[in-house]
Amino acid sequence: MFNHSIKGSPMDKPPYVRQTRSINSLGAATGAATKPIEPMRYTGTEMMGTATMHKSNGVPVFSKESIVDINRMRRG
Predict the structure, then answer these.
(1) DSSP symbols for 5-57
(2) pLDDT tens across 26-64, in order?
(3) Is 30 exposed, middle or buried (0-12, 13-18, 19+ CB in 10 A)?
(4) In this structure, what is the dihedral angle of CA atoms 25, 26, 28, 29, given to the nearest 10 degrees?
(5) I want to staple 51 with a disulfide (CB 3.0 to 4.6 A). Which of 23, 35, 44, 70 is the partner?
(6) In this predicted model, what pLDDT tens digit does every residue of 8-25 receive, in sequence order?
(7) Is there a contact between 51 and 58 (Cβ–Cβ < 8 Å)?
(8) In whole angstroms, how far apart are CA 26 and each of 23, 29, 30, 33?
(9) What's the Rg (C-alpha) of the chain?
């Protein structure tokens, strides 16, 4: 705690305030800051569909053999 009546105390001098220049804004924003995210879509012809593995994990299926394999893994 400072005693304001003592000469030479830190409270005798006002705190230093740095002078900063004012930078004006460019104005109102006219659009979005980033481009919109497009949803990812599979556009190929190789994938037959999706299958569900352990704990509802969806995996892509590319052949009838993989459908049988995934079905065997899921049922044990």
Answers:
(1) TSTT-TTSSPPP-----------S--S-SSPPPPPP----SS--EEEEEGGGE
(2) 776 666 677 788 888 878 888 888 888 777 788 889 998
(3) exposed
(4) -110
(5) 70
(6) 666 677 778 888 888 777
(7) yes
(8) 9, 8, 11, 14
(9) 34
Give the span between the Cα atoms of 61 and 52, in whole angstroms.
10
Residue 58's beta-bridge partner residues?
A: 52
63 residue type, one letter: S
Reduce the DSSP state of residue 64 to 3 states and report it. helix
